[in-house]
Amino acid sequence: KSTDGIFAVASDPDEDAVDVVALGSAPSLVGTVALERGDEPNRMVFDAHGLAHVVLRGGGAIATIDPKSASLVARRAVCPAPRGIDYDAVTDSLYVACATGELVTLPSSGPVSRVVRLDRDLRDVVVLPDKLVVTRFRSAERLVVDATGSITSRATLCSMARTLSLKFSMAIAA
Description:
Elements: E1 7-12, E2 17-22, E3 28-34, E4 41-46, E5 52-56, E6 61-66, E7 71-77, E8 82-88, E9 93-98, E10 102-107, E11 114-117, E12 122-128, E13 131-136, E14 141-145, E15 151-156, H1 157-173
Antiparallel strand pairs: 1-2, 2-3, 4-5, 5-6, 6-7, 8-9, 9-10, 10-11, 12-13, 13-14, 14-15
């Protein structure tokens, strides 16, 4: 859903298309954006300008879509296997996590500005005020990445569960 609540955008990876719906009292299809065969549109994020940025898992790119006209504004190559995406309104930047290990930064419009090599199998990225949190799929690991692109901490689901269990046990004992 767009930040203003006017549009919803839905990926259809089987049809290599993105549907745009105008919300309101009588929702209606604005249009369908046809993508290239094998693009596999997936996760997406809206920027402050109202544009939707869609991860093309099979296309190695980000598709930028204008929901007002249901049109493809740009297609930008990012990495061989993009997976997660998030938007930083402070810097007007997109962050893309790639299964091949790249964490890619690009402005909401324009070419890739930075590529940081992290561990393989990256899945999601979340922008926080002073850092990024990136997840790895198979290892169930969370990486905290600072502004320089360095990993400042990492934790697996098991280690996080042990920490929570210890805190819970201590709270009960107290």
